[in-house]
Write a structure and sequence with these properties.
Elements: E1 8-15, H1 18-31, E2 36-39, H2 47-51, H3 58-84, H4 97-123, E3 147-152, H5 160-168, E4 174-179
Antiparallel strand pairs: 1-3, 1-4, 2-3
Helix pairs in contact: 3-4
Length: 184
């Protein structure tokens, strides 16, 4: 497969500072790209707003899981204490809520933790063992001291020449067109 016939996957623009990547993210957002991302060696404060990302839905997932855990704990103890195996211990009624608090707390926390973990993995599409940015040899520096913007070819606004011109206008230290790799 020749270099010209390889299908383009994305453009990868490299920047040297957090301020540069923040400005680049704002311009990509304003340009209207939909399938693009920012890759940084550490979390950059304000990047979500610069990229135009909505608030995370993770809090609602955790709340729903926590309320489910609380409801299940109450239903479970009401069933067990009142119908399945009713015992009166120390003269307390079957629905004595003070004795239920530890179980209600534990199930609420347990299901909230599961919701947070699996919700985060699902919303972040993890594990994703393969992404075209890994075809770039330079991308390895992202874990040290470089910042990247990637614009994927599946974006409706992606055009090889126009996207290249736009990204060059952001003054990256390096710009790379990542293409399909040959099968070995």
């Amino acid at each position: 497969m020749s270099e010209q016939s390889k299908r383009p996957l994305l453009y990868l623009a490299e920047f040297e500072t957090a301020d540069q990547i923040m400005a680049a993210a704002e311009k990509c957002r304003d340009e209207g790209f939909e399938h693009w991302d920012v890759h940084t060696p550490y979390p950059v404060h304000g990047m979500d707003q610069a990229m135009g990302l909505p608030d995370s839905r993770l809090g609602w997932i955790v709340l729903a899981c926590g309320l489910t855990g609380l409801s299940l704990a109450v239903l479970m103890m009401q069933w067990m204490n009142g119908f399945d195996y009713p015992l009166i211990i120390g003269g307390k009624p079957a629905d004595a809520y003070p004795s239920m608090v530890p179980i209600m707390f534990e199930l609420t926390v347990l299901l909230s933790a599961f919701g947070a973990t699996f919700g985060m993995l699902g919303l972040n599409k993890i594990p994703r063992h393969h992404h075209p940015v890994f075809y770039s040899d330079r991308f390895e520096a992202c874990s040290n001291d470089r910042y990247y913007v990637s614009v994927e070819a599946e974006d409706r606004k992606f055009d090889i020449e126009k996207t290249k011109a736009f990204l060059e206008g952001l003054s990256p230290s390096h710009l790379e067109l990542v293409t399909e790799q040959e099968e070995s």
